[in-house]
């Protein structure tokens, strides 16, 4: 009983913390996007830097230009989807995890066979005991040895637990240990080569094959973070935390494989800019160390929340996990944060800009939703307006789009009051996105009567692989047929008691309105920032309006012909 009460209190405290620290979690996601900018830049730049060893005449500027060119090609290929090139990923990473440990074994035997004594905790304790604060600062230099591990988790959802455990325990982990041990053995005998330890410890005879494999592996690692960035942006858009961008699903059976043209080209520009501006590698390395260590620390915090809220893990295990990993990663974060002035500020700058965009967009949307819920129209209010002799019912079929499930958009009242008319057949239409590839045709359109003459509700459900095109008579015909079936089924109910003549007259009105003409009406709302608004609302809502005017429409590409499209503008007063 006491344990159950403790769990309830812990969940309550955690939920309260999430509520109050929600901006912090959005900032954490911004740090992940920053990782998607820095990883391609430093991965490709480090790999291409291997050209300078066999060709000393190649300067740093040429390496930067070649790295930028590789990244531009990589980003231009994103529109074809990951599936088109993913068949190369496994052979490349297989070659990487096989060849580098073999070189490491050769280096261990040739330079320092007793290197594995470094695994003893005795040397770790002795190192910090002897170096003190300097040893703590040197931890910042070891962070780059564990960077890239976050890319391992980009697509883990596509595999089961057993395959992940086998791959990590029998390939990834041994490969990394042998590779780093081999580099360390080489550096013990060649202390002056620490600036380029990887390519220096490669034997001359196999240098070019390893260079090709290393460059290919860097491109694969970059691809994983680019794809992860697309997925994060897409989820943020769905949750209403990011301005709407175009999202294209490049796979018909994998919901996570997405591509966004706007995000892709912005990432490309930022990655190239990072290389050209901070191309010496030191500042990029510091920035990369900061962002990776913070991402790992953030992952620990978020996983702790998952263990408490979703998995309901025993508190002792949660505390043990959190203490061990948070302490270990917190020490690394504290060490790399000393590099903030030496390039570590880059991910913070990126995160601040992204967090500002997300907060401005979320604040504007929440203000708009609160206004719509406060001023939404009810069916009774709509009936009162339509009963006014000054409001005419004109001939035709109107699809009036609304996002409000319980009630009607305020734009409807604004429209009726000013136009003094409404089509005799008006269908309030809501588009509902489902987490499925395709929606069955018989479930695509859901209709209902709304209790007023000529007024109906319609929900169009679609998946990420569905082609949503409302152009032509096909869509209109499907809605009309669905309404006919619904009217007949609804009228057959005991509570209705409608005569056959009334049913036929209602169906005849549908056909007559269809032939008279079809129009699609949607609202286009803006904030009216008057003198009554406070300074905070003035700044944030003006910022939201700038983003809103330059982002994608809330409605997907419906294919509605321009002559049938009407936009009704309305000002919302916050």
TrEMBL record:
Q: Write the protein's name.
A: Potassium transporter
Where in the numbering of this chain does the K+ potassium transporter C-terminal domain appear? Answer: 396-572
The record's subcellular location field reads: Cell membrane; Membrane
| Database matches in NCBIfam families | kup (TIGR00794)
The opening ranks of the lineage are: Eukaryota, Viridiplantae, Streptophyta, Embryophyta, Tracheophyta
Of the GO CC terms on this record, one is: plasma membrane
- Membrane spanning residue stretches: 58-77, 89-112, 135-154, 166-186, 206-226, 263-281, 287-309, 316-333, 345-363
* Sequence ranges assigned to domain K+ potassium transporter integral membrane in this UniProt record: 29-381
Q: What task does this protein carry out?
A: Potassium transporter.
One Pfam family recorded for the sequence: K_trans
Transport found in the keyword field: yes
**UniProt keywords, alphabetically:** Ion transport, Membrane, Potassium, Potassium transport, Transmembrane, Transmembrane helix, Transport
The family annotation for this protein states: Belongs to the HAK/KUP transporter (TC 2.A.72.3) family.
A single GO molecular function, which one?
potassium ion transmembrane transporter activity
Per the record, the domain of life is Eukaryota
Topology in the membrane?
Answer: Multi-pass membrane protein
Main localization of the protein described in the UniProt heading: membrane
Record keyword Iron present = no
The protein's matches in InterPro entries, at most eight in alphabetical order, are given as: K+_transporter, K_trans_C, K_trans_N
């Amino acid at each position: 009983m006491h344990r159950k009460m403790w769990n309830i209190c812990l969940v309550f405290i955690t939920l309260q913390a999430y509520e109050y620290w929600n901006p912090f979690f959005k900032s954490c996601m911004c740090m992940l996007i920053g990782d998607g900018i820095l990883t391609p830049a430093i991965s490709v730049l480090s790999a291409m830097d291997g050209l300078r060893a066999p060709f000393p005449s190649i300067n740093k500027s040429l390496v930067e230009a070649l790295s930028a060119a590789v990244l531009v090609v990589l980003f231009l290929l994103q529109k074809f989807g990951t599936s088109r090139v993913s068949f190369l990923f496994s052979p490349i990473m297989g070659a990487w995890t096989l060849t580098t440990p073999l070189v490491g074994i050769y280096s261990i035997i040739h330079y320092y066979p007793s290197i594995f004594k470094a695994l003893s905790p005795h040397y770790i304790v002795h190192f910090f005991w002897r170096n003190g604060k300097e040893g703590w600062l040197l931890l910042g230099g070891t962070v780059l040895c564990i960077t890239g591990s976050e890319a391992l988790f980009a697509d883990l959802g596509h595999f089961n637990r057993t395959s992940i455990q086998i791959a990590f325990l029998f390939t990834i982990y041994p490969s990394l240990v042998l590779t780093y041990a081999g580099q360390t053995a080489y550096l013990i005998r060649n202390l002056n080569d620490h600036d380029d330890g990887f390519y220096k410890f490669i034997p001359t005879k196999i240098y070019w094959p390893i260079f090709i494999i290393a460059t290919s592996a860097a491109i694969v690692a970059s691809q994983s973070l680019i794809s992860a960035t697309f997925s994060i942006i897409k989820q943020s858009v769905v949750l209403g935390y990011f301005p709407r961008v175009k999202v294209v699903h490049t796979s018909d059976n994998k919901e996570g494989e997405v591509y966004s043209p706007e995000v892709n080209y912005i990432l490309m520009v930022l990655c190239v800019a990072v290389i050209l501006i901070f191309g010496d590698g030191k500042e990029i390395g510091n920035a990369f160390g900061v962002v990776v260590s913070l991402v790992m620390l953030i992952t620990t915090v978020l996983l702790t929340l998952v263990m408490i809220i979703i998995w309901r893990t025993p508190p002792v295990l949660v505390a043990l996990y959190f203490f061990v990993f948070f302490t270990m990663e917190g020490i690394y974060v504290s060490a790399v944060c000393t590099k903030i002035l030496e390039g570590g500020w880059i991910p913070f700058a990126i995160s601040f800009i992204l967090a500002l965009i997300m907060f401005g967009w979320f604040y504007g949307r929440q203000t708009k939703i609160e206004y719509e819920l406060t001023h939404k129209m009810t069916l009774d209010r709509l009936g009162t307006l339509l009963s006014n002799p000054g409001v005419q019912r004109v001939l035709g079929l109107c699809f009036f789009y609304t996002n409000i499930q319980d009630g009607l958009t305020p734009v409807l009242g604004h429209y009726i009051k000013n136009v003094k008319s409404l089509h005799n057949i008006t269908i309030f239409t809501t588009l509902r996105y489902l987490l499925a590839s395709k929606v069955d045709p018989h479930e695509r359109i859901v209709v209902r009567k709304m209790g007023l003459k000529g007024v109906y509700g319609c929900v169009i459900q679609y998946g990420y692989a569905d082609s949503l095109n409302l152009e032509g008579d096909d869509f209109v015909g499907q809605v009309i047929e669905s309404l006919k079936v619904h009217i007949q089924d609804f009228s057959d109910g005991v509570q209705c008691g409608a005569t056959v003549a009334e049913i036929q007259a209602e169906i005849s009105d549908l056909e007559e309105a269809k032939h008279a003409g079809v129009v699609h009406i949607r609202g286009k709302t803006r904030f009216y920032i008057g003198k009554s608004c406070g300074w905070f609302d003035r700044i944030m809502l003006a910022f939201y309006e700038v983003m809103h005017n330059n982002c994608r429409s809330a409605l997907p590409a419906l294919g509605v012909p321009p002559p049938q499209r009407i936009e009704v503008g309305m000002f919302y007063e916050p």
